[in-house]
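Appendix B, record 7
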Amino acid sequence: MKDSDSLTTALLLHAYTLGIFPMAESRDDPDIFWVDPRRRGIFPLDGFHVSRSLARTLRRMDYQVSVNRDFAGVVDACADRPETWINAEIAQLYLELHELGHAHSLEISAGGQLIGGVYGVTIGAAFFGESMFSRRRDGSKIALVWLVDRLRQAGFTLFDTQFITPHLASLGAIEISRAEYQARLHEALARRADFTAPPPPDNAQSVLQRITQTS
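Structure tokens (predicted):
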């Protein structure tokens, strides 16, 4: 289905409550189509896997973690790749959702530069992960660890990754049927969570103690 002429933030939020999300074929393709996967990727928030090597990287803390400090920078970084589904209209819509308090980012920085990050949409107790990026080894993995910790602390019950990849599966993401996803979505939408409520990021050891199954 392609119809970006009437795509607004209100329609976009409504689409998420139905379990569908928008994509473009490429950065330069003006058309936007709706996606409703038969198999859906999710992160069980109580089953995130952190390898020993990633745990060591996290504990070094040679990076800084921030929340909603550079949402536009994270979106731009996610779109800055040879193949992307983020065209100009989609990027603008998520910037508007961020201004409305329905889209959030978590940034990983070092030396004043973004080295990793992730952004997504929140409705009720559902977090719809949109995209992530990495400019340094494990940059996106570090971001996901801190994100999962925040979602757990904030009361979220669903972390939707849309699709599953080997990268996400290695961290504990699983694939479920459309019917099961709809049931989990319905339950999450009936709950309340606040992405901004948890205190500022603390130290990596505390995060690891809260969320991990170290393997």
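Remarks on this record: The longest helix spans residues 139-154. The two ends are 42 Å apart (CA to CA).
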